[in-house]
């Protein structure tokens, strides 16, 4: 496998910063409203009523509410399924995109507002300089059978995290492993912490790592320069999972994204 270059990393960092700061990126998430137990289906600050009904969310709105669905004024009762992302939500209120999502059987509406304070105060991502020593050969070892572990999430709730195997790599001669999930495209996803996590001069309390799909023999390049901040580092309303047991590295990893910069 080819070794990533400084230029490739710089291009990646520029794309990443642009993605985070776009009008409906993670910085724009102003609120997540869970619908269960909400009297009358009212959401503070949003027009219409929003109720769970079987396998859908039912929005009831009048023409004077200022909501549009699929580009047309909302007037009456509309059934909504889960949206694919904040850029393409069916429901819009002015400049705000209202995303319908479902997590662990519960429905919610997320309010993406380009004028959200987090987006206005964003000044960049603190990131460590590219260093070739953080590009490591890795080996993916799939479990014979996938497993689900319960982990706390950023909202304080415990939820299941599916894990498909472990990713092994060496740092300073010592082997380390992280439990990983496998995404739909075959790429890997680890939620982990290290000795810098949460410290005053270190990194955010946990981070993500997303190596590409391994080769048939399980080998994969682990580029720790591309360690990512999770979405909840940019807005408080995401449900990021915390690292599963065993996914805290006993060493300091001053590589990749460290913290959000504000002004």
Strand share of the residues? 35-45%
Q: What Rg, in angstroms, do the CA atoms define?
A: 20 Å
Summed up, the domain count is: 2
What is the N-to-C succession of helices and strands? HEEEEEEEEEHEEEEEEEE
Would you report the number of β strands? 17
Q: What do the pLDDT scores average to?
A: 95
Overview of this structure, please?
This protein is mainly beta and 263 residues long. It folds into 2 domains: 156 residues, no CATH class; 88 residues, no CATH class. The chain is built from 2 helices and 17 strands. The strands form 4 sheets. Strands 1-9-8-7-4-5 form a 6-stranded antiparallel sheet, with no helix packed on it. Strands 15-14-13-12-11-16 form a 6-stranded antiparallel sheet, with no helix packed on it. Strands 2-3-6 form a 3-stranded antiparallel sheet, with no helix packed on it. The longest helix has 16 residues. The mean pLDDT is 95.
Give the gist of this structure:
This protein has 2 helices and 17 strands.
Topology:
Layout: H1 6-21, E1 29-34, E2 49-53, E3 56-61, E4 67-69, E5 72-73, E6 76-80, E7 91-93, E8 96-103, E9 106-112, H2 117-120, E10 122-127, E11 135-152, E12 158-171, E13 174-182, E14 188-192, E15 207-209, E16 219-223, E17 257-262
Antiparallel strand pairs: 1-9, 2-3, 3-6, 4-5, 4-7, 7-8, 8-9, 10-17, 11-12, 11-16, 12-13, 13-14, 14-15
List keywords for this structure.
globular; mainly beta; 17 strands; six-stranded antiparallel beta sheet; 2 helices; 8% helix
């Amino acid at each position: 496998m080819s070794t990533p270059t400084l230029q490739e990393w710089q291009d990646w960092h520029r794309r990443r910063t642009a993605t985070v700061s776009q009008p409906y990126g993670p910085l724009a998430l102003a609120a997540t409203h869970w619908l269960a137990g909400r009297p009358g289906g009212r959401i503070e600050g949003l027009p219409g009523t929003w109720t769970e009904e079987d396998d859908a969310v039912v929005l009831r709105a009048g023409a004077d509410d200022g909501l549009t669905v699929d580009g047309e004024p909302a007037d009456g009762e509309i059934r909504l399924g889960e949206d694919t992302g904040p850029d393409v939500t069916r429901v819009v209120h002015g400049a705000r995109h209202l995303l319908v999502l479902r997590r662990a059987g519960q429905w919610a509406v997320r309010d993406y507002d380009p004028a959200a304070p987090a987006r206005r105060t964003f000044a960049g991502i603190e990131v460590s300089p590219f260093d070739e020593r953080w590009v490591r050969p890795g080996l993916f070892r799939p479990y014979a059978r996938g497993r689900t572990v319960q982990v706390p999430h950023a909202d304080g709730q415990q939820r299941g995290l599916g894990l498909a195997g472990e990713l092994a790599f060496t740092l300073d001669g010592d082997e380390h492993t992280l439990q990983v999930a496998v995404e739909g495209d075959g790429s890997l996803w680890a939620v982990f912490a290290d000795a810098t996590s949460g410290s005053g001069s270190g990194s955010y309390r946990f981070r993500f790592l997303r190596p590409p799909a391994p080769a048939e023999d399980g080998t994969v390049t682990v580029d720790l320069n591309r360690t990512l901040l999770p979405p909840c580092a940019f807005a408080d309303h995401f449900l990021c999972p915390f690292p599963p047991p065993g996914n805290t590295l006993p060493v300091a990893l001053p590589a990749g994204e460290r913290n959000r910069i504000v002004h």
